[in-house]
Amino acid sequence: MHLYKPACADIPSSKLGLPKSSELALKCRRHLAVAKPPPQVACWPARPSGAAERKFLEKFLRVHGISLQETTRAETGMAYRNLGKSGLRVSCLGLGTWVTFGGQISDEVAERLMTIAYESGVNLFDTAEVYAAGKAEVILGSIIKKKGWRRSSLVITTKLYWGGKAETERGLSRKHIIEEIVRAMTHVINQGMAMYWGTSRWSAMEIMEAYSVARQFNMIPPVCEQAEYHLFQREKVEVQLPELYHKIGVGAMTWSPLACGIISGKYGNGVPESSRASLKCYQWLKERIVSEEGRKQQNKLKDLSPIAERLGCTLPQLAVAWCLRNEGVSSVLLGSSTPEQLIENLGAIQVLPKMTSHVVNEIDNILRNKPYSKKDYRS
């Protein structure tokens, strides 16, 4: 995975005109036309366009030491965190495109989802070259262009997949493959095609190996790891990644906070026909739901429902807020398929302040799956 983000838009320009900014394409070379500074006129100018108004607003806020993200936070409650120990600020909730864009939902619904997320303060959108055979990336880029959103205000993450078995057949060890990846990502960043890069579903050992290679050959190390994290999947994010964060500054960008919909409550009475688990390519999910372990998980979710009711939220909102309460998590990616689901999940921001240590302990007592590190055992 590598992260696309141009230079920070909050840096004030030393000139009177607006700062020039280039647009980084998702996968191809495209550039954003730079608007010329408005002419100096003595009379009151005509009302500018929406894009021009936004630029005027950003310039006004910079002069007064305020960022546009801060005003968005005040209006929507969205919080922003650094991605690992990098200087990249991302919204603590992001929108993912896996399964949904170009597959489960129409382009019109995808546009509504992105609009809701954007207007709610989300600046992080995640995609990959293999999602819907490349359609997800195309849809994402076309919506951004259609809406006229400033590319410098968004953080787009896209994943590139290495050859896997084909690389092994070339006689390359995993160590050599990691070195190739680090060199490739360093080249991508040096060429201006991305600002940061990270990993997805790598082990802690592989991430450390990438960091060591980068330091040894004066290259650029990863800044984050994308990992699955939810009420029933905890060890990697709660035990392994915190150690990496403190040692080398790698942050966590987590996905599947509702465990592919299992925590949403929709599977309490079986598998609905319109659900993701009913799709042919998700037979593994259906098997997980109807298994003995799946039934135990549903019983635990029923036990968690009174906590959600007491906090005045839904079970999905509680689950997302539970992920956000982990300070090591930079951002949680949402995979909503309807506007109603997305609005509900974004409401987890309002639940986050209610996630006290007492509430977290209540949840742990119900789940009984809290992982412990070697340090915890020694103490």
Model description:
With 379 residues, the chain is of the alpha/beta class. The protein is 45% helix and 11% strand. The protein is built from 16 helices and eleven strands. It has helices spanning 50-63, 68-76, 100-104, 107-119, 135-147, 165-169, 174-190, 204-216, 235-248, 283-290, 292-311, 315-324, 339-346, 348-351, 357-367, 374-378, and strands at residues 2-4, 80-82, 89-91, 93-96, 124-128, 155-159, 196-197, 199-200, 224-228, 251-255, 329-334. A nine-stranded mixed beta sheet has the order 7-1-6-5-4-11-10-9-8. Strand 2 (80-82) and strand 3 (89-91) form a beta hairpin. Helix 7 (174-190) packs across helix 8 (204-216). The radius of gyration is 22 Å and the shape is globular. Mean pLDDT is 83; it is low at 3-47.
Please give the structural blueprint.
Blueprint: E1 2-4, H1 50-63, H2 68-76, E2 80-82, E3 89-91, E4 93-96, H3 100-104, H4 107-119, E5 124-128, H5 135-147, E6 155-159, H6 165-169, H7 174-190, E7 196-197, E8 199-200, H8 204-216, E9 224-228, H9 235-248, E10 251-255, H10 283-290, H11 292-311, H12 315-324, E11 329-334, H13 339-346, H14 348-351, H15 357-367, H16 374-378
Helix pairs in contact: 4-13, 7-8, 8-9, 11-15
